[in-house]
Amino acid sequence: MNSLKDKLKTLAKEALLFSHSPYSQKRIGSSILLTNGKYYSGCNIENASYGGTVCAERVAIFKAFSENKVSETKIEAVFVASDEKEPWPPCGFCRQVIAEFGSPETDVTLVNLDGSEKNYKFKDLFPEAFNADHLLKK
């Protein structure tokens, strides 16, 4: 998976270059790998109406699941790239979306342009995530 990991890292860093972030000035890129072997990337897209802003992770996830059946695949890995001094993690909203389409074992890798890298299992980044199982309990 090293060459695939390098490709996903590169895709996240390249996506960062397309960031539309005139308000925060924070450029973020993301790439994801699905269990079916397909991968997607996205960047953060800000809006003057802040509620219309979409993070890079969600752009990549929405692209992926608009083209793949949720019942047939999950997120295997998420890469998040920033040009900040320290790699940035997904926000709470993105973590909740990852919880919907990933698993506790989903790999999450945070990188920056200087080569810093942090690796997590999703369950360690977002323990006790709310998911569909909670809605099915009676």
UniProtKB/TrEMBL annotation:
<dbReference type="InterPro" id="IPR016193">
    <property type="entry name" value="Cytidine_deaminase-like"/>
</dbReference>
<comment type="similarity">
    <text>Belongs to the cytidine and deoxycytidylate deaminase family.</text>
</comment>
<keyword id="KW-0862">Zinc</keyword>
<dbReference type="GO" id="GO:0008270">
    <property type="term" value="F:zinc ion binding"/>
</dbReference>
<feature type="binding site">
    <location>
        <position position="55"/>
    </location>
    <ligand>
        <name>Zn(2+)</name>
    </ligand>
</feature>
<feature type="binding site">
    <location>
        <begin position="44"/>
        <end position="50"/>
    </location>
    <ligand>
        <name>substrate</name>
    </ligand>
</feature>
<dbReference type="InterPro" id="IPR002125">
    <property type="entry name" value="CMP_dCMP_dom"/>
</dbReference>
<feature type="binding site">
    <location>
        <position position="91"/>
    </location>
    <ligand>
        <name>Zn(2+)</name>
    </ligand>
</feature>
<comment type="function">
    <text>This enzyme scavenges exogenous and endogenous cytidine and 2'-deoxycytidine for UMP synthesis.</text>
</comment>
<feature type="active site" description="Proton donor">
    <location>
        <position position="57"/>
    </location>
</feature>
<dbReference type="GO" id="GO:0055086">
    <property type="term" value="P:nucleobase-containing small molecule metabolic process"/>
</dbReference>
<dbReference type="Pfam" id="PF00383">
    <property type="entry name" value="dCMP_cyt_deam_1"/>
</dbReference>
<feature type="binding site">
    <location>
        <position position="94"/>
    </location>
    <ligand>
        <name>Zn(2+)</name>
    </ligand>
</feature>
<feature type="domain" description="CMP/dCMP-type deaminase">
    <location>
        <begin position="3"/>
        <end position="133"/>
    </location>
</feature>
<dbReference type="InterPro" id="IPR050202">
    <property type="entry name" value="Cyt/Deoxycyt_deaminase"/>
</dbReference>
<keyword id="KW-0378">Hydrolase</keyword>
<dbReference type="InterPro" id="IPR006262">
    <property type="entry name" value="Cyt_deam_tetra"/>
</dbReference>
<keyword id="KW-0479">Metal-binding</keyword>
<dbReference type="GO" id="GO:0072527">
    <property type="term" value="P:pyrimidine-containing compound metabolic process"/>
</dbReference>
<dbReference type="InterPro" id="IPR016192">
    <property type="entry name" value="APOBEC/CMP_deaminase_Zn-bd"/>
</dbReference>
<dbReference type="GO" id="GO:0004126">
    <property type="term" value="F:cytidine deaminase activity"/>
</dbReference>
<protein>
    <recommendedName>
        <fullName>Cytidine deaminase</fullName>
        <ecNumber>3.5.4.5</ecNumber>
    </recommendedName>
</protein>
<dbReference type="GO" id="GO:0005829">
    <property type="term" value="C:cytosol"/>
</dbReference>
<dbReference type="GO" id="GO:0042802">
    <property type="term" value="F:identical protein binding"/>
</dbReference>
